[in-house]
Amino acid sequence: MKEYKMRRGEHLDDRMPDLKASIEEYFGEVTGTEETNGQELYVVEDPDNPVFERILAGAAEYSGKKDKLMVHFEERDAEDVIAEGNADAAADAVDAKNDFLLEATGRDAKSRRDSMKRAVEDEAPDY
């Protein structure tokens, strides 16, 4: 499960006022909700793209802090997807994830990676 911050001064509700509809637009029909780490997330049990087995996504709400986007992509083994003749689906899956995360957070893939690196560095113990 990964959590993504919004750009400075922006909020998830402003970027995606109807998060459920956005999830359905990118990945397929939301089939329900599931509580994970104390957060209620939308579940896509049968995503449109055959690379994905299941997707969990939603707003992670913390008191006194800005909301974050919480997402978990369960993906099938790449060899299985390619063996089925769905090699193009793999590229489409990467594009769908990146486009969704860019729209939700306002941050491109490089910016998200850099932010996660800084978060890991901040959590490193001082010896």
Strand content: 15-25%
Q: Which overall shape is indicated by the principal axes computed on the Cα atoms?
A: globular
Please, what is the oligomeric state?
single chain
Provide the helix percentage: 40-55%
Distance between the termini: 29 Å
Question: Which residues sit in consecutive blocks of at least 5 with pLDDT less than 50?
Answer: none
Helix/strand/pairing category = alpha+beta
Run of helices and strands: EHHEEEEHHH
Describe what this molecule looks like in 3D.
The chain is of the alpha+beta class and 127 residues long. It has one domain (2-123). It has five helices and five strands; from the N terminus they run βααββββααα. A five-stranded antiparallel beta sheet has the order 1-5-4-3-2. The longest helix is centred in the last third of the chain and has 19 residues, at 87-105. It is globular, with a radius of gyration of 16 Å.
Features:
127 residues; alpha+beta; 5 helices; 24% strand
Short account of what is shown:
Helix content is 42%, strand content 24%. The chain has 127 residues and is an alpha+beta fold. The chain has one domain.
Can you lay out the helices and strands and say which pair or pack?
Blueprint: E1 2-4, H1 12-15, H2 19-27, E2 32-36, E3 39-44, E4 52-60, E5 68-75, H3 78-83, H4 87-105, H5 109-123
Antiparallel strand pairs: 1-5, 2-3, 3-4, 4-5
Helix pairs in contact: 2-4
